[in-house]
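Need residues for this backbone.
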């Protein structure tokens, strides 16, 4: 090749190098842009006169400076930071709601307890009774208000989940389209700008959900979410759906679309905003609503039960103060039968905050606690566990695989109400009283007497307990109770319980009768006031402790999310810095390259000029 040809090849090569450098400078502020470098290679030499002579230079490729490992680290950091930031914001809102003195439960609950004590202090006071019912209404209203606020947060999260799923589908569709375009254009060279565009979309996808990316030999990528569910395979994408796949229409799940029903992948979705939304909904919103419902159920059931064990101002057994809701039952979307099991509370103190799944295998029913996956009851008919009873006899035509979601306490706070309207209906007085027989000669004394079963028809019927010194037993209604000479003997009958301290003489009697006509008696109201400190909630915590436990749990989650967010933000900045160090545009370096290529371009032009001058001189010599 002539000197002119060599100069021309250099001129064209450095012209392209200048163009590449200019493009880098122009895109120095473009997000996700990977700097490019012009790769040059010498042309094959030509054999001339016993040696090889160079033939100039060619541009072999425009290389995109990128590191797949660093890009993967960046996507992971984006997903982690997006998840932590969303969790911190969401948990913080719930923490503020539950812990606020203006919107939380603690002050209203304490006011209710104080009002009960005021009635105990003055059981005949109409004002104290009215205040007690007013505080009961305030308590029920606060339970409902907090539940509504939590439900509003649930709806916001559900809307964000649906929006997030739509955004994921748009991104995966765009990535699949870029895959097709990249594969098509790769036959003519490397489409660097398309690769950058695809990386930007992958980073945006990582903000929404944790992803894993693998590259095919043809340059296309496959994208997986969850525990390996493919959402992009080459030039095709599979859509996600947000629907009530587990049976709860108020908590849409995330599923992978198939030719049939979507496959529920909710439990596998982690990372990104979607992972944070799902985690907050199940770990904070669900727990808060279930715990509030459990607390509302316990408060209402315990005060109702105690009020029924006393006499009101009209000398009638007390009625319910609070109205309680029933457990929520929802059928799975593909059940073959429309029948539902009948679910009821049997022991409020044993009710947990967990949801349950009742499933049928074609022969037997299984009741499984969802919080820990434990099977708590199985069989047919009535299944009892954790303070609830599930009557499967109300279901007809069930088929293998049919199942129902049972939420005992989910709506307990919402459904709590005050049904007592008359202050005189508060049963402050005990239902029964006990007196020593007039002719008793022994040292025994009545320690206490109280009603324990308001449903016993003989509760207010007079009864006499007689001591038999020969057998050392107390006798009543044909039942006998052995004397405890060193302590207190408990005698039960007709729905009441009496404790006798000491040793009576043979024939001594103890008379139990209705407590009518003693409006100043406050024994039952004292028992109601004492409920404040009783360990009623799952037999482990009192009412205040149960709510404080919820506050502590939400507060801990909030703090953990904030710490995780700070850490994730630092890791993201580090990952971005690492990516910029490799793929980012350094303007100083590009300016130096621009000068270098400019000088080389000018030198190549000079080569062509010299070649032309030599050629002209040669022609002139030949003409002479």
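Answer:
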């Amino acid at each position: 090749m002539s000197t002119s040809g060599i100069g021309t090849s250099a001129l064209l090569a450095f012209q392209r190098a200048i163009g590449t450098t200019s493009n880098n400078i122009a895109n120095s502020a473009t997000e996700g842009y990977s700097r490019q470098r012009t790769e040059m290679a010498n042309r094959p030499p030509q054999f001339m006169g016993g040696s090889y002579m160079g033939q100039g230079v060619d541009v072999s490729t425009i290389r995109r400076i990128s590191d797949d490992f660093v890009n993967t680290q960046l996507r992971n950091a984006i997903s982690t930071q997006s998840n932590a930031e969303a969790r911190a914001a969401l948990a913080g809102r719930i923490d503020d709601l539950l812990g606020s003195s203006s919107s939380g439960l603690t002050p209203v609950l304490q006011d209710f307890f104080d009002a009960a004590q005021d009635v105990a202090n003055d059981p005949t006071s109409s004002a104290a009774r009215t205040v007690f019912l007013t505080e009961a209404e305030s308590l029920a209203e606060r339970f409902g208000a907090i539940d509504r606020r939590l439900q509003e947060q649930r709806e916001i999260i559900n809307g964000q989940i649906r929006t997030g799923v739509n955004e994921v589908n748009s991104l995966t569709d765009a990535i699949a389209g870029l895959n097709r375009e990249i594969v098509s254009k790769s036959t003519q060279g490397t489409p660097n700008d398309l690769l950058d565009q695809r990386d930007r979309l992958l980073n945006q996808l990582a903000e929404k959900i944790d992803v894993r990316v693998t590259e095919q030999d043809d340059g296309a990528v496959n994208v997986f979410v969850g525990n390996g569910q493919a959402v992009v395979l080459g030039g095709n994408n599979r859509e996600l759906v947000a629907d009530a796949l587990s049976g709860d229409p108020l908590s849409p799940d995330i599923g992978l679309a198939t030719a049939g029903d979507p496959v529920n992948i909710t439990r596998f979705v982690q990372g990104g905003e979607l992972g944070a939304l799902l985690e907050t909904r199940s770990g904070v919103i669900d727990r808060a609503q279930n715990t509030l419902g459990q607390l509302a159920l316990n408060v209402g059931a315990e005060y109702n039960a105690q009020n029924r064990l006393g006499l009101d101002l009209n000398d009638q057994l007390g009625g319910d103060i609070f109205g309680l809701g029933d457990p929520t039952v929802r059928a799975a979307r593909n059940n073959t039968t429309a029948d539902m099991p009948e679910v009821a509370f049997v022991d409020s103190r044993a009710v947990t905050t967990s949801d349950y799944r009742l499933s049928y295998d074609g022969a037997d029913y299984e009741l499984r606690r969802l919080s820990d996956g434990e099977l708590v009851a199985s069989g047919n008919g009535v299944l009892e566990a954790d303070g609830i009873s599930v009557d499967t006899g109300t279901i007809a035509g069930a088929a293998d695989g049919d199942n129902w979601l049972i939420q005992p306490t989910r709506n307990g706070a919402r459904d709590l109400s005050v049904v007592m309207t008359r202050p005189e209906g508060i049963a402050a007085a005990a239902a029964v009283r006990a007196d020593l027989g007039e002719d008793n000669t022994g040292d025994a004394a009545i320690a206490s007497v109280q009603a324990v079963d308001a449903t016993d028809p003989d509760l207010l019927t007079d009864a006499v307990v007689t001591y038999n010194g020969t057998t050392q037993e107390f006798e009543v209604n044909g039942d006998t109770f052995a004397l405890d000479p060193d302590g207190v003997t408990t005698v039960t009958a007709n729905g009441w319980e009496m404790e006798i301290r000491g040793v009576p003489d043979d024939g001594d009697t103890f008379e139990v009768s209705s407590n009518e006509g003693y409006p100043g008696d406050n024994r039952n109201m004292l028992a109601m006031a004492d409920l404040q400190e009783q360990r009623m909630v799952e037999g482990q915590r009192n009412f205040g402790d149960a709510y404080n436990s919820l506050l502590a749990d939400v507060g801990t989650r909030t703090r953990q999310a904030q710490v995780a967010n700070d850490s994730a933000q630092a890791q993201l900045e580090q990952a971005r810095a690492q990516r910029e160090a490799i793929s980012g545009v350094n303007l100083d370096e590009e300016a130096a390259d621009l000068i270098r290529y400019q000088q080389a371009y000018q030198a190549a032009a000079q080569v062509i000029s010299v070649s032309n001058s030599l050629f002209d001189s040669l022609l002139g010599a030949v003409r002479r």
